[in-house]
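dumping this here before i forget
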Amino acid sequence: MSEQQKKEPGATAPQAQNEPLPGVLPAQHWAQIAQTQDPDDDADSAIEDNASSTASLSSSILQYRTIHGRTYHSDRGNAEYWASNDERQNEALDIIHHVLTLSHDGKLHLAPLGDNVEKVIDIGTGTGIWAIDFADAHPNAKVVGTEISPIQPSWVPPNLEFQMDDCTQDWTFEENSYDFVHIRWLFGSIADWTALFKQAYKTLKPGGYIETQEPSIRFESDDGTVNEKTAMGQFGKIFVEGGKKMGRTMTVLEDGIQRKALEEAGFEAIEEANFKTPIGSWPHDPKQKEIARFQQLAVEQDTEGTMIYVAALAGWSKEEVTVYISQLRREFRSQAIHGYYRRKVLWARKPGAA
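structure:
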């Protein structure tokens, strides 16, 4: 990102674009739909304005940006993350963690780690919930979680520490010293995935494992109920085109970037698992229904904080985002729409003796 493109920490919003995002229906489309719908429909719930404030602290990492009343990480270095970092978004991230754990039958990782794992890094730890659970499950392991925003709790297991760090910069961990590097949900924030995985490769011991989990930003259906005219069908388009304007890809899964980058970084024994994550209450299978309901809860917890930054790139106002989200929520709650998104988990080993 050039110096001209960088915004000062107090910036209020990304620069709005006059041109619509390619393939994205204009914001006015959703306002027209809203005028034809029943205003008493309980699926159309208003979004509360929950502007966050931060104390005036000397640390630059706490100089959050504010966009339409929501806070985002300090715009310093090469880090670029599009979701809010305030309490509403953090709660949504914790629910997503529950969704992923349910989907994986309670497992915190799919990589075949041994019982004697000693040192672990969680890159982009977010609220730290995965790192906390892993540290609790492995009390003899040293766990480090890195993040660009200090949003983690103070009370954590004694074998866990959090570090404020930008994973797109050179890592400062000792080389050949860690057993496991865990990375998930960084789509739209990494400019060079091969460089990221090369940093992990350098940090891992010979025989150590890396695991990367990324979702598709696109909602799909197997029966055509999610299509380009639905709000769910437009959701992915908004993010894909917005990501292009940021210079960050949102299509990590679709483009096979994880496997390519792992191979280019030098990893071997690459394996993968693919998942469909439903949203709503439409699945008949009890486990999938539970996953789908929690996924809906996660998205509805803070759709606004997820969308505002990217939608602002298209020139959408907060009010226009609110109208669109109302339609999106109607579709999430509709039994007639059978939406899901795809996820891909890959794990690989650094060559050498374990």
